[in-house]
Specification:
globular, 18 strands, 6-stranded mixed sheet, Chitobiase, domain 2, TIM Barrel, 672 residues, glycosidase, binds alpha-D-glucopyranuronic acid, A-glucoronidase_C_sf, alpha/beta
């Protein structure tokens, strides 16, 4: 830190005064974080303890305290709710102090981290008056970690939770991770893959619960609740029953016993996350029951303890016949869940992927947002970059998530955004929030690609405050991670902000999606899924490309949206260019709003995208010597891989479409 700034801060941070009606572990952590954070930033440890009477201190408060009189009133504190906080400069001239006050100890903890962020980003402390409350109640992370130590769709090493079929015994990394989650405001974690295999099915059994409880203890200390993904067929696999029928009394008894056992070990256990009847996972369909039957049965088991069921809507036919042009995977979630609206118990939340497909670089928002009025819901995002470069490519996803959160469903007229639907505000639902698939692993830098940390960080910040801009988040993360050198900050910020568009440029065009190698999903393969049972996605022939999802002549998917949105997508004229091929099949010569034909757009964006990656490499090289050698080299090598691979994408896509369409590039560039 700049010595002048450090000196200024040091005068505020000589001591930390802690005030609470009852001391709590969370508050102790908040104080510990302040002491450690300030100490490491300023090179001088503040004193913990003491009184506020000498001024120039940080006052950390949970609940009302006489020291807050005239600074934060009781009513204001109460209005902060469970997790909000105030940061305010107060005190008499010559004896000012900064108050970090929460109504609860959890609020105070988040306030403490916010205070540290102010120092890290070089903010002035003289006139602080910050009042914060999270927009989303549930701010969750889903880990797709398996007990053998692998991470499904993980690109940052092995699991931090498991090794060789067991929960790790050295839990230092988990502890650091819990701190990191709290620092960005997250409050819930599911620690095992939604695809619950044999070993993981046993996580809810008496044999494994003690070690799960030890992990829950670590997270609890930072205000994070633990959840487990469960196998719907557990009554058969573990319970020795012959059925998992949700209406069977023995099955219900099985789950009630498991829930009781879980809560004996983990009194504040969050609940179950469930992937059922999806991609070969068992579910209620086997027994002729629906998803409400399945979810409500688990909800009943958890209800006595205040637990919730997070039930995923990622349900579609993955044994489709590619010749069948009526089945449209995009329709599936809505077709399954919309008829059940209102049938789910109050402690069930439906978890809905952001788009109707599967985390593609560009998708419209799922029509279930705004389509479900009487059901709790959470938005599911994917931080791990399964389809967006697998943390070998740079792809800062905050701009994409912002578009999703701001997407207007028109469910209750203008302004009915996905963000409001997910938080529960739109229809006054008691529960709601946002969940995302983690991108971390045991790599030293957590995320493989160092700059992919910005996605995790940004996720936390965005679900706390969806109105933050991508620019603000990129700026914050860059300063916190690399300091304040203006050249470094402006370069990295720009790289982050441009990266999603760049990635889209050289990969799948105009919203059509996929075009990846089947299975691992890395690298170009235009027909990878075209003749596949998992769904078919572009229908390119010698005349044109795209999927007709209109009501008029296609699969009828557009009709799942509210009128205003439906008509925008239904008509080729009003459908936005970037989603054109998701909604319409058009000739290659169709002219876009940009004035270019579809085919020329494909060529141009692919040449441009590959060039843009070369520029990323160049600008990064410009930072040599300005950031430490290790981080410089590690990012450089990822960018070089991206640059090579972007050219592979460019050439595969361009060649495919040149050969299909027979239409030459207007600029006569090399296409193979
Ligand atoms: C994708 C992903 C799978 C994952 C699934 C899910 O299909 O490729 O690995 O299990 O999503 O979200 O359940």
């Amino acid at each position: 830190m700049d010595p002048e700034i450090a000196e200024k801060y040091a005068s505020w941070c000589r001591s930390i005064v802690v005030e609470a009606s009852a001391p709590s572990p969370l508050l102790a952590k908040a104080c510990e974080e302040l002491v450690g954070g300030i100490g490491s930033m300023l090179g001088r440890m503040p004193l913990a303890g003491g009184t506020a009477d000498h001024g120039r201190c940080v006052l950390l408060c949970a609940g009302n305290s006489s020291k807050l009189h005239g600074v934060v009133e009781a009513a204001e504190l109460e209005a902060l709710g469970e997790e909000g906080y105030v940061l305010r400069t107060a005190g008499e001239p010559g004896r000012p102090f900064v108050a970090i006050a929460g109504h609860t100890d959890r609020g105070a903890l988040y306030g403490a981290f916010h205070f540290l962020r102010l120092l890290q980003t070089g903010q002035n402390l003289n006139e602080l008056n910050i009042i914060e409350k999270p927009a989303a109640k549930l701010r969750m992370i889903n880990h797709w970690d398996n007990m053998d130590g692998s991470v499904e769709r993980g690109y940052a090493g092995r699991s931090i939770f498991y090794r060789d079929g067991k929960i790790v015994t050295d839990r230092k990394r988990i502890h650091d991770y819990a701190r990191m989650m709290a620092a960005v405001g997250l409050n819930a974690i599911a620690i095992n893959n939604v695809n619950v295999h044999e070993t993981e099915t046993n996580l809810i059994t008496s044999e494994l619960l003690p070690s799960v409880a030890a992990v829950a203890d670590i997270f609890r200390a930072y205000g994070v609740r633990l959840y487990l993904s469960v196998n719907f067929a557990s009554p058969i696999q573990y319970g020795g029953l012959t059925t998992a029928d949700p209406l069977d009394p023995e099955v219900r008894r099985f789950w009630a016993e498991r829930a009781a056992d879980v809560y004996r070990h983990i009194p504040d256990f969050g609940g179950f996350l469930v992937k059922a009847d999806s991609e070969f996972r068992p579910g209620p369909f086997t027994y002729g029951r629906d998803h409400a039957d399945g979810a409500n049965m688990l909800a009943e088991a958890l209800r006595p303890y205040g637990g919730i069921v997070v039930w995923r809507c990622f349900v579609y036919d993955c044994l489709q016949d590619w010749r069948d042009r009526k089945t449209d995977r995009a329709r599936a979630a809505f077709d399954h869940f919309r008829p059940l609206d209102g049938k789910f118990a109050d402690n069930v939340i439906l978890q809905i992927k952001n788009g109707p497909m599967d985390f593609q670089v560009r998708e419209p928002a799922s029509p279930l947002f705004g389509g479900l009025r009487h059901t709790n819901q959470v938005l599911e995002l994917q931080i791990t970059q399964e389809y967006t470069g697998q943390q070998k490519h740079l792809c800062f996803l905050i701009p994409q998530w912002k578009e999703i959160l701001d997407f207007d469903t028109y469910a209750r007229g203008e302004g009915s955004t996905v963000s409001k639907a997910a938080t529960g505000e739109l229809f006054g639902r008691p529960l709601g929030g946002i969940a995302a698939v983690s991108n971390i692993g045991d790599d030293a830098n957590w995320t493989g690609h160092l700059l992919a940390q910005a996605n995790y960080y940004g996720y936390g910040r965005l679900v706390w405050r969806p109105e933050l801009t991508a620019e603000q988040i990129a700026d914050e993360w860059t300063r916190i991670t690399f300091g304040h050198d203006p050249a470094v900050v402006s370069t990295i910020r720009r790289m982050l902000l441009d990266s999603w568009t760049i990635y889209e440029n050289y990969t799948s065009p105009l919203g059509v999606g996929w075009m990846v190698n089947p299975g691992h999903h890395y690298g170009p393969n235009v027909d990878g899924y075209e003749y596949s049972k998992w769904g078919t996605y572009h229908y390119a022939d010698c005349h044109g490309i795209g999927v007709d999802r209109t009501v008029k002549s296609g699969t009828g998917y557009t009709g799942q949206y509210h009128d205003k949105v439906a008509s925008r997508f239904e008509s080729i004229e009003s459908c936005p260019d970037e989603l054109l091929l998701f909604f319409h099949h058009v000739p290659y010569t169709h002219v876009l709003k940009s004035g270019k034909t579809v085919i020329q757009h494909i060529y141009d964006t692919h040449f441009e995208g590959a060039e843009q990656v070369d520029k990323l490499v160049d600008v990064w090289r410009g930072l040599e010597g300005r950031i430490d050698g290790d981080r410089y080299a590690s990012v450089l090598s990822r960018l070089q891989e991206q640059s090579k691979h972007a050219k592979e994408w460019r050439d595969v896509i361009n060649s495919y479409f040149l050969r299909k369409s027979g239409i030459a590039d207007e600029q006569g560039r090399t296409i193979y």
